[in-house]
């Protein structure tokens, strides 16, 4: 897998296709995940922490926590 690092301090959008993307605001705030008709939002400064807590790690290929 190719790796690309973006550190712009302003937020980043990762666009997979027209209806699949992940948008993360500055400092991990205001996260939006879209997959077709399904969208998930995490608003606010603690969005990154709430996003991580929402992941079911039992379904992950690798989890350290």
Number of H/I helices: 1
Radius of gyration over C-alpha positions, nearest whole angstrom: 13 Å
Structure class:
mainly beta
Shape: globular
The biggest sheet, with number of strands, parallel, antiparallel or mixed sense and barrel status, is: 4 strands, antiparallel
Q: Kindly, what is the distance between the CA atoms of the first and last residues, rounded to a whole number of angstroms?
A: 24 Å
Helix share bin: 10-25%
> What are the segments in which pLDDT stays under 50 over at least 5 consecutive residues?
none
Averaging pLDDT over every residue, what do you get?
91
Q: What would you note in describing this structure?
A:
With about 60 residues, the chain is mainly beta. Helices cover about 10% and strands about 35% of the residues. The chain has one helix at about 45-55; strands at about 10-15, 20-25, 30-35, 40. A four-stranded antiparallel sheet has the order 1-2-3-4. The longest helix has 8 residues, at about 45-55. The chain starts with 10 loop residues before the first strand and ends in an 11-residue tail after the last helix. The mean pLDDT is about 90.
């Amino acid at each position: 897998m190719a790796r690309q690092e973006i550190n712009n301090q302003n937020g980043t959008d990762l666009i997979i296709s027209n209806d699949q993307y992940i948008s993360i605001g500055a400092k991990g705030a205001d996260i939006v995940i879209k997959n077709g008709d399904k969208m998930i939002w995490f608003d606010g400064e603690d969005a990154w922490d709430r996003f991580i807590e929402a992941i079911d790690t039992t379904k992950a290929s690798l989890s350290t926590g």
